[in-house]
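Each lists sequence, tokenised fold; shown next:
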Amino acid sequence: MRALITDPAAPGGLRLGETPDPVPAPDEALVRVTATSLNHGEASLARQGAPAGAVLGWDAAGVVVRPAGDGSSPPAGTPVITLGMAGAWAEQRAVHTGMMGTVPEGADPGAISTIPVAGLSALRALRRLGPVLGRRVLITGATGGVGRYAVQLARLAGAHVIASTGDPAAHGDTLRALGADEVLAGPENVDEPVHGVLDMVGGHHLVAAYDRLAPGGTLVAVGRVTGEGESFPYPMLSGDRGHDRSIVSFYLPGESGLGPDLTWLAAKVAAGVLTPQIAWRGPLDKAAEAIDALLGRRLHGKAVLDIA
């Protein structure tokens, strides 16, 4: 089968080539991939750290070619959305049935492929905050793939949504259209305490966002795009600055029971309730171009590769 293969000698560290078809385990289905979307983490891995000859890729939409041998997958011919730690940048992938959801007939595979990492991370992180109806929720890094889904889902959940972005003038209208009530240039500009924070950035942004938490509030640390550590100045963690405030770490591969959430998110995207905000779309052999734009912070939204 055709696949994007890591190759340190190739331009951009990737080349389009042939690789053996995957062999599914009994609890895996074989899926023909029709579209895949890119994430910052796997794009970084493609440029540094991935062994030669690997087929990367986390997110993919496609169609079941061979059902799982243990009977736990949808039947052949079913459109599906899939998540895995590798294998999406290819014409076929073997997927554990617990990391797969079904997709409405006729849905755009490119739009569906944006869901697994970005949509699931936003949904599962938002649930860590508990009920948010009528409560103030701050989302940092709101212009990224996870951030845009988080803005929409928080609005659907009834929150007053505050979106933090480095350039409100450029992205304010888009974020408001997605459901943001306020768009600010950094968490330090939040004027009143918030019940919850979904932080996609890390570093000093996380510290500033934590400082805006109301007593009993929770910050979910989802992303680390700055590469910075966090330093909390004295006495930010003292009780008189806000009692019982929590920081919760988040790691999507450690989550379980993802199939029903993938199916739910796919239905919402297919119905137009959620919009994936695709910023770049092209064929598999243009992946290096998309990765350059993604790592260079020139993409605000998702990049999609169509696989014929």
User: Anything to note?
Assistant: The chain has two domains: 2-118+255-306, 129-249. Helices lie at 40-47, 109-113, 115-127, 145-156, 168-178, 204-210, 259-270, 287-295. The longest strand covers residues 28-37. Residues 32 and 92 are 5 Å apart (CA to CA).
